[in-house]
Amino acid sequence: MGPDVSVLLHEPLVIVRAGEPVPPRGDQILVGVGEFPREAAARLDVTLVPPGSNAGPEFVVSEDPVADAEFLRAAAHDNPQAALVLAQVLRAGGGDVAAALDLESFAYSTLLGGAEFARWLEKRGERPLPPPSTEPVLVERDGARLLITLNRPERRNAYGREVRDALVEALRLAELDDSIERVVLTGAGPSFSAGGDLDEFGTTPDLATAHFVRTRGGAGLLLHRLAERAEVRVQGSCVGAGIELPAFAGRVIAREGTTFRLPEVGMGLIPGAGGTVSIPRRAGRWRTLFLALSGRPLGTTTALEWGLIDAVE
């Protein structure tokens, strides 16, 4: 490992305080603290401001911006490879959705082979594969409406292989049938989805195959193509894919008390179900970085303000 890389991994995040010049964008994550002009904040990766400040997508309102900036610095220090890759993908992920999904997946596969994810796997320990399900997704046709329900409430509708494949099959049906005017996606039980099934993590046959499964066998691009017809209703704890996928839909309705969280950086990864593509297109890349790097839950009030969801019912 060269000296420049060693320094970067030792100090992956730099805090820039209001009044200081914004450094030219390099490899490090740049977190602003305090009031910056929007043009300057756009060059940072996220800017933390006190309540009552600018509410543009470049900014995250914080009760204690200095403490939250230090929290982000600690999170980046704990998993510098994942944090830096997250920032790089978010910076480069604009434009075509399919290409951005490929970029996310290439980065995700890279991190699957990294030391940080290996450390997380070792700490978690061996787990048996989840038991099979007879009907992981329910599909019901009601006139011009197709109702799709994630149906593994005993696993909080974790986005494992069986749920993913059955969901993709249902979405392909909707895409091929023009008589389906509305697609409504819900989740059975108290939570819409707890995200990727952790018991399947680390079981991919190889990283290249995993890339093709994520991008060509995943639900994100299908939901994006169906966005004008698609509505997702979420509740409970929406983790990882549990918000990454809904964010592709044209309308997301959350039950009161729903929370949203992206925990992947703490596992040595980045969002891998399309979250670096879907969430920035709703909330902005800056707030997406804060959500993913902090790993903190986001409530419905803030999610609605950010545009991550469209209504609370």
UniProtKB/TrEMBL annotation:
One of its GO terms (molecular function) is isomerase activity. It holds the Pfam family ECH_1. InterPro entries: ClpP/crotonase-like_dom_sf, Enoyl-CoA_hydra/iso. Transmembrane segments: none annotated. Coiled coil: none annotated. It comes from the Bacteria. Gene3D superfamilies: 2-enoyl-CoA Hydratase, Chain A, domain 1. PANTHER family: ENOYL-COA HYDRATASE, IP11341P-RELATED. Belongs to the enoyl-CoA hydratase/isomerase family. This is Enoyl-CoA hydratase/isomerase family protein. It comes from Amycolatopsis acidicola.
